[in-house]
User: Which sequence fits this backbone?
């Protein structure tokens, strides 16, 4: 598509007297991977929840694929998906049953073969007929990612996509996300506390602190501008509100 996949314009979200997000503006272009970074309580989860239409902004507006999410919720969410290790799937269902349920909700054609292909790529083929509740946290993370890819989304929202994964599987997941972006031109917005992961995957980073965007740029330019040795040092400075040079 021409134009941004995500447009967030002066968005704020207030809970009683607390602004979890305040005057936030950013965009994500097709084929771009953008990192949403900040310490706990910075507003990352609230922002992702508004992009998923789980929360309604108090101020501002959000457009996905050029459509106002407030008025075209079903149309935009059909082209979007989400993964988080903190949003679990039903434990009594097997992995295959979980993926069948979500695939049918999205109306995925050739669903059974899609599940087989995804399972092979994410190394969960041996888990397909096991109840989700029997799996380790790392295995459930990979299943959640398979669920997020079941409809070949044009916008993929990821919260800690490699949490609980061992280094080998985490590296393979990152490589697959890079390949998925290259093959499909999908836009990816991810929240992560793994700065090496962010530097590897992200074309651009949005730094949040207390619900506000305090900076956004490429990882390399952020590091250079703030006078630190690494993105992790810049992240720590912002999280601790130290003076940057």
Assistant:
């Amino acid at each position: 598509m021409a134009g941004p996949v995500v447009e967030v314009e002066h968005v704020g979200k207030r809970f009683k007297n607390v602004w979890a997000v305040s005057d936030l503006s950013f965009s994500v272009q097709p084929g771009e991977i953008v990192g949403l970074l900040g310490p706990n309580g910075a507003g990352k989860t609230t922002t992702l929840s508004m992009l998923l239409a789980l929360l309604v902004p108090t101020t501002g507006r959000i457009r996905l694929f050029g459509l106002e999410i407030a008025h075209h919720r079903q149309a935009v969410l059909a082209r979007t998906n989400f993964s988080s290790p903190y949003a679990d799937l039903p434990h009594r269902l097997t992995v295959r049953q979980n993926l069948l349920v979500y695939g049918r909700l999205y109306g995925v054609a050739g669903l059974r073969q899609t599940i087989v292909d995804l399972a092979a790529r994410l190394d969960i083929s041996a888990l397909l007929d096991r109840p989700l509740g029997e799996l380790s946290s790392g295995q459930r993370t990979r299943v959640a990612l398979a669920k997020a890819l079941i409809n070949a989304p044009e916008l993929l929202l990821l919260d800690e996509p490699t949490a609980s994964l061992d280094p080998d599987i985490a590296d393979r997941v990152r490589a697959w996300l890079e390949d998925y972006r290259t093959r499909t031109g999908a836009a990816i917005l991810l929240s992560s506390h793994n700065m090496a992961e962010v530097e590897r995957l992200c074309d651009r980073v949005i730094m949040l602190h207390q619900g506000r965007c305090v900076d956004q740029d490429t990882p390399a330019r952020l590091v250079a501008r703030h006078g630190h040795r690494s993105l992790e040092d810049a992240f720590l400075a912002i999280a601790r509100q130290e003076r940057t040079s």
